[in-house]
């Protein structure tokens, strides 16, 4: 029994490995393919918009902004299946993920018609988009458009787009602007990912994005790398010592998560990974981030951490990404705004990954979108701003959790058999060891009795 239990360990591991090698590849008919082509569990994107409480004081006196968050306003996303473009000879598959967002009033604090006092996107961005010698002309355009530094807009307008008076006056080809405009029926580009048919350790890893093997934003070999997957799944047989790399077009870069602890999710053992403070730290703390710093003035010679300037991939719009409420950001950035209350539990990004299959069973991707507000002496509505401010606009939580039906299927097909196999192995080894020990003691006792 002891030997049988020992033999079952490598045999059991081989059975599990063969099962994963078969079902984890992205190929029609496998468990991985069914979950990859269309996520069965609902995925939601919650928005908290920042309402400005003292707009007049900021514009006229250069006062410190006082903000309060309003939300969540919740939308269901990713309910559309991936659009397969091609299955390639190099064991990759090409696809588009069309975007969609459907408002969920029962999961929201109000309606899309709720009004928010927010920063005027076009007005605030002007000093960063245009050189000082034409700021006088910009001021005239603002007067014609009757533009203010702040505006009252509905949640629907701020998120998904509205006709901007400034863009209309300048006869822009597209006078519509919004935080996520355009969105519905668009995509973030063509992805090529490895199917794992030739090497299971490469499954779901991104080979190309937008037909390119590296980014062109950062002008640096390291920062322009496209690393890892899209975070919905990872190669199987994860260890708690390794980092999980994933690419996000929302932040125009690859990033990583580190193992924090083991958890149980609906009866399934998972590894809890979090995006650590050093992922967005300054180059002083994390030298790997040296190439993400582009604005030396705002970042105090790249010594400020917790923010990422993505204007380089946003048509030079002065957009900065951070964690919500500037979690892990430098004190100077957090303290420039009243109303910031960073909290690790509420504002960190995490992934709960089943380590054997590499499937992500729960995720919370949390991002804050900020706009750089700079003073401009020749623009009336900006002349009283005292110094550059990383101004929060909205933070979002994109979250998804494996549903009960899928969790049951997962337990029945993997978790329960693996657990049962482990119990059988341990039981045989324990009973075999006990019997062997008992027999040995009995044999010694009989030998002593026969040989007084």
Structure characterization notes:
This protein has 452 residues and is an alpha+beta fold. The protein has 2 domains: 75 residues, no CATH class; 361 residues, no CATH class. Helices cover 27% and strands 26% of the residues. The chain contains 10 helices and 19 strands. Strands 1, 2, 5, 12, 13, 14, 15, 16, 17, 18 and 19 form an 11-stranded antiparallel β-sheet that branches. It has a 4-stranded antiparallel β-sheet with strand order 3-4-10-11, with no helix packed on it. It has a two-stranded antiparallel sheet with strand order 6-7. A hairpin with a 2-residue loop joins strand 13 and strand 14. Helix 1 packs antiparallel against helix 10. The longest helix has 47 residues. The chain is elongated, with a radius of gyration of 28 Å. The mean pLDDT is 90.
Please outline what is shown here.
The protein contains 10 helices and 19 strands. The chain is 27% helix and 26% strand.
What keywords describe this structure?
eleven-stranded antiparallel beta sheet; elongated; 26% strand; four-stranded antiparallel beta sheet; 10 helices; 452 residues; single chain; alpha+beta
- Strand and helix order: HHEHEEEEEHHEHEHEEEEEEEEHHEEEH
N-to-C terminal Cα separation, in Å? Answer: 33 Å
Number of domains: 2
> Helical proportion?
25-40%
Please mark out the parts with pLDDT under 50 across 5 or more consecutive residues, or reply none: none
Instruction: Look at the structure and give the mean pLDDT.
Output: 90
**Morphology:** elongated
**Rg over C-alpha atoms, rounded to the nearest angstrom:** 28 Å
Q: Biggest β-sheet: count, sense, barrel?
A: 11 strands, antiparallel
Number of strands: 19
Number of helices: 10
Report the structural category: alpha+beta
Strand content: 25-35%
């Amino acid at each position: 029994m002891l030997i049988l239990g020992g033999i079952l360990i490598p045999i059991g591991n081989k059975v599990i490995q063969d099962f994963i090698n078969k079902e984890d590849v992205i190929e029609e008919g496998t468990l991985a393919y069914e979950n990859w082509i269309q996520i069965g569990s609902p995925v939601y994107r919650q928005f908290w918009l920042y309402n400005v409480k003292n707009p007049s004081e900021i514009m006229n006196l250069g006062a410190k902004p006082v903000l309060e968050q309003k939300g969540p306003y919740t939308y269901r996303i990713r309910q559309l299946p991936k659009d397969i473009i091609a299955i390639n000879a190099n064991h990759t598959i090409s696809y588009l993920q069309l975007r969609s967002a459907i408002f969920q009033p029962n999961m929201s604090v109000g309606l899309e018609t709720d009004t928010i006092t927010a920063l005027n996107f076009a007005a605030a961005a002007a000093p960063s988009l245009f050189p000082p010698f034409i700021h006088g002309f910009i001021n005239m355009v603002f007067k014609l458009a009757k533009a203010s530094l702040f505006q009252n807009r509905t949640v629907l307008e701020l998120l998904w787009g509205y006709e901007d008076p400034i863009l209309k006056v300048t006869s822009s080809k597209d006078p519509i602007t919004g935080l996520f405009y355009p969105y519905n029926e668009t995509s973030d580009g063509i992805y090529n990912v490895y199917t794992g048919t030739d090497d299971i350790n490469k499954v779901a890893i991104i080979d190309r994005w937008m037909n390119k093997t590296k980014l062109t934003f950062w002008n640096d070999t390291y920062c322009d790398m496209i690393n890892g997957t899209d975070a919905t799944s990872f190669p199987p047989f994860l260890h708690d010592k390794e980092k999980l790399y994933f690419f996000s077009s929302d932040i125009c870069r690859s990033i990583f998560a580190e193992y924090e602890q083991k958890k149980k999710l609906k009866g399934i053992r998972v590894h809890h990974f979090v995006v650590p403070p050093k992922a967005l730290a300054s180059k002083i703390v994390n030298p790997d981030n040296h190439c993400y710093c582009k604005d030396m003035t705002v970042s105090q010679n790249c010594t400020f951490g917790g923010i990422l300037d993505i204007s380089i991939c946003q048509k030079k719009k002065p957009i900065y990404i951070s964690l919500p409420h500037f979690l892990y950001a430098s004190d100077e950035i957090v303290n420039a705004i009243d109303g910031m209350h960073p909290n690790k539990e509420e504002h960190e990004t995490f992934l709960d990954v089943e380590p054997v299959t590499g499937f992500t069973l729960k995720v919370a991707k949390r991002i804050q979108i900020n706009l750089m507000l700079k003073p401009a002496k020749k623009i009336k509505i900006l002349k009283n701003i005292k110094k550059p401010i990383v101004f929060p606009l909205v933070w979002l939580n994109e979250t998804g959790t494996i549903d009960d039906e899928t969790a049951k299927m997962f337990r029945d097909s993997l978790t329960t058999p693996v657990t049962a196999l482990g119990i059988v192995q341990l039981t045989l080894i324990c009973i075999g060891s006990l019997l062997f020990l008992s027999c040995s003691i009995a044999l010694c006792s009989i030998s002593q009795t026969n040989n007084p």
